[in-house]
Amino acid sequence: MQVIKYPAKESWNSVLTRPIFNVDELEDAVNLVFGEIKRDGDKALFKYTLQYDGVNINKTEVNRADIDASESMLDDELKQALVIAAKNIQTFHEAQFQDSEVIETSEGVRCWRKSTAIEKVGLYVPGGSAPLFSTVLMLGIPAKLAGCGELVLCTPPGKNGKINPAILYACKLVGIDRVFQVGGIQAIGGMAYGTESIPKVHKIFGPGNQYVTAAKQRANRIGVAIDMPAGPSEVMILADETAEPEFVAADLLSQAEHGTDSQVVLVTWAEQLIEGVEQELEKQLQALSRRDVAAKALENSKIVLVKSKEEALELSNSYAPEHLIVSVKDEDLLIDGIKNAGSVFLGNYTPESAGDYASGTNHTLPTNGAAKAYSGVSLDSFMKSISFQKISEKGLLNLGPVIEIMAKAEQLDAHSNAVTVRLNKIKLNS
User: Fold this and answer.
1) Mean of the pLDDT values across residues 407-423?
2) Is 176 helix (H, G, I), strand (E, B) or coil?
3) DSSP string covering 94-151, please?
4) Active site residue 93
5) Residues 78-101: what's their mean pLDDT?
6) Fewer Cβ atoms within 10 Å of its own Cβ: the N or the C terminal residue of the chain?
7) Mind listing the pLDDT tens digit for each residue in 281-313?
């Protein structure tokens, strides 16, 4: 990791530039695949699964028997861990239900909102180099709680031509029946357009690499909603002299191992911390099964020494990290100032991986600075609100003239007349 000491504020954007991709090439690839899916349906899914995943498939949907059989393929320890994680995720998201009150904005004018589930939802679960069965829980549980009518889950097959049994067991645990062995651009395109086998959905959820992110944005442009622009993973750690170098290094590596395009950043005002973290990074890296991936990600990553915790906080808000870890003695002084972050982890004993798996919060979060405008996935992500209003005769007598005046001022006479004819009727009958 490159160490940068006391960067000037005007250089922060360049100092913390995310890994750059050739957007034109990404969009060209996505447009090509989407075009073929729209034209050829499942045939295009077969073609690109072979091209991108190296797997020759002749059907997309996983048999129910294979989903059921996954339970016998996992050890009891992992199954129990999944059950505990699912319970915590359900508890956290279940508490997000909100009742809507009927509000009388003025006499005789009543307004309220009704929340309804999105009817058809597509869930994308990465499963190539690392099968993220935890994402099944993070997306499937709030979707089920919300009451979404149709859940479609896509995940790429492994090199053996099969989906990891932990992903299938998580689907069984959550209650997702329709699972498709399709990944990457072609999975997003399949859910966006619909094919002979994959239903067209109304909204697509899930993390992924830059290709998946570009595909989701393309789907959004053709009228399919998406959760957020979520791309390569990232973490920023704000740490002082009370932070444990061993813990800090472990958290940096936990994100670096996601992919070579991940970025991890340590921001500190305690210069003595840096050497210890560097030593721990070198030591811990050697023990990782994905050390080559993590080492490549560290090339995109930085240790930034700043003058104060206030400057660190300002830099963090400017960067808007997906994950923000705060390991400082006076965390309460920083919490109120955090404006831009996907999810925050406080204290030496709150690893980012707790949120990835089992604490209960959602791990599908905005990346690449999108936390300035987007929230992570929640129960609300799977629902939409419809507003209702009911106006009595007396209410329209009171409010009608206001509407008429405003409509006429905007030169929308028909709007005004829709009120006027009703007022005339009320006056005629009174």
Assistant:
1) 97
2) coil
3) HTT--PPPPEEEETTEEEEEEEEE-SEEEEE---SSS--HHHHHHHHHHHHHHT-SEE
4) no
5) 96
6) C
7) 999 999 999 999 999 999 989 999 999 999 999
Catalytic residue among 257, 258, 280, 323: 323
CA–CA distance, 71 with 92 (Å, rounded to integer):
25
Distance CA 198, CA 154 (A): 9
Phi, psi of 30 (to 5 degrees): -65, -45
Give the confidence band of 130 by pLDDT, cuts at 50, 70, 90: confident
Residue in 234, 257, 280, 322 annotated catalytic: 322
Q: Record the pTM.
A: 0.92
323 is known as an active-site residue: yes
pLDDT at 128: 67
**How many Å separate Cα 154 from the centre of its chain?**
16
Q: What is the DSSP string of 274-332?
A: HHHHHHHHHHHHTT-TTHHHHHHHHTT-EEEE-S-HHHHHHHHHHH--SEEEEE-TTHH
Q: What is the DSSP letter of 159?
A: T
Q: What is the DSSP string of 39-74?
A: HHTHHHHHHHHHHHH----S--BPPHHHHHHGGGGS
Query: Closest Cα partner for 400 from 18, 109, 96?
Result: 109
Most confident of 223-232, 255-264, 413-422: 413-422
